[in-house]
Design a protein that fits this description.
This protein is α/β, with parallel strands linked by helices. Strands 1-2-4-3-5-6-7-8 form an 8-stranded mixed beta sheet, with helices on both faces. Strand 7, helix 11 and strand 8 form a beta-alpha-beta unit. Helix 5 crosses helix 6. The protein is globular. It starts with 20 loop residues before the first helix and ends with a helix. 46% of the residues are buried.
Length: 340
């Protein structure tokens, strides 16, 4: 009887010959933009944030949709609220739950107002009330300010989602730095609100290990949105002065969380089902590979979708086939977990 592996991978997804021409075109566009765009740490975080809004970076100019609304949610701090962006289904039919989105941006850039199109997509495709969190950013507000804001919003929605929005929190999602926050927020909910079960967690190209010691991160020099040098600048801004050992703190780097213990102590016996999306040209590829295997090793469901040649943040480039394919697969996964 042949010996079989307990873990397997679709090797074809990692082969350069399977990179589509449109993905190559996206990467070429990003490399060119990298050469001509100032870096955030050269011009300052505040200036770079404004440049994004003016279309002066490699990121798409964020559209503001009229059906998106601003709101606030109380924080743990007296007299301070957390700003959020809310998008409800356009068909006016009852929402099936709350989709909580934690945006990316290296813990330094991005706002809750830049994701209206994404909020609209999930609101209408999955019949959800989509909410993006305007968490505090480094370097003005380093660790743990941003993740605390995300946790505060999630805990508030678990406790008050029905009274405030008429629906419960069903999904937590995040990309890049937001993927880090989404994992940490999910783990905190399992501790503080153990009887609340999320339908799913969506973790796109997350920064799960802030040591930057995973091989793809350590060796990532190609300038496709991020590389090792840019990761180092982001993380130093977020956890200033923290050495490698300090960055292994599971409250900073969720990869170091004891997921088996969390699952074992949960009344549900597992972590929530998770979908990991990442491209093979992303320096954070190994973060997703290792995180998803640890998720599965806890006895929990994890689906890992790998996109040949896709760069970091590829799902933000709507209209490119690789981004559209990922969106289609993500919606299918979430609908399955929502039972719709």
């Amino acid at each position: 009887m042949p010996v079989t592996s307990d873990i397997s991978a679709n090797a074809a997804k990692f082969q350069a010959s399977n990179i589509e021409a449109s993905t190559e075109k996206l990467n070429q566009m990003l490399e060119k933009a990298f050469e001509t765009t100032p870096k955030w740490y050269e011009v300052g975080a505040a200036t770079f944030r404004q440049m994004i809004l003016e279309g002066k970076t490699q990121f798409p100019v964020p559209p503001y949709l009229p059906n998106a609304e601003d709101a606030t949610i109380p924080s743990r701090d007296p007299d301070r609220d957390i700003v959020v962006r809310v998008y409800k289904p356009d068909n006016a039919k009852p929402s099936k739950g709350i989709f909580l989105y934690l945006h990316g941006g290296g813990f330094v850039i991005g706002t809750h107002k830049e994701w209206d199109t994404l909020l609209e997509s999930f609101a209408n495709s999955c019949q959800l009330t989509s909410i993006a969190v305007g968490y505090r950013l480094a370097p003005e507000d380093p660790f743990p300010a941003g993740v605390n804001d995300c946790i505060d919003v999630a805990e508030y929605l678990v406790d008050n989602g029905l009274s405030t929005f008429g629906i419960p929190l069903r999904i937590i999602a995040g990309g890049s730095a937001g993927g880090n926050f989404a994992a940490l927020t999910t783990f905190q909910l399992m501790r503080s609100r153990p009887h609340h079960r999320l339908a799913a967690v969506l973790l796109n190209y997350g920064a799960f290990d802030l040591t930057i010691n995973m091989p793809t991160a350590a060796q990532g020099t190609k300038p496709l949105v991020i590389n090792r040098a840019i990761l180092e600048k982001y993380i130093e801004a977020y956890v200033p002065g923290a050495d490698i050992e300090a960055r292994r703190n599971p409250l900073m780097s969720p990869l170091y969380e004891d997921m088996q213990k969390l699952a074992r102590e949960s009344p549900f016996g597992s972590l929530p089902p998770a979908l990991f999306n990442c491209g093979t040209a992303d320096p954070l590829l190994d973060d997703s590979l290792m995180m998803s295997v640890k998720w599965m090793a806890s006895g929990s469901e994890a689906v890992t979708n790998i996109y040949p040649g896709a760069p970091h943040m590829f799902t933000a480039f709507k209209g490119f086939k690789v981004a559209d394919d990922a969106m289609t697969a993500t919606v299918e996964f979430l609908k399955g977990k929502l039972g719709i």
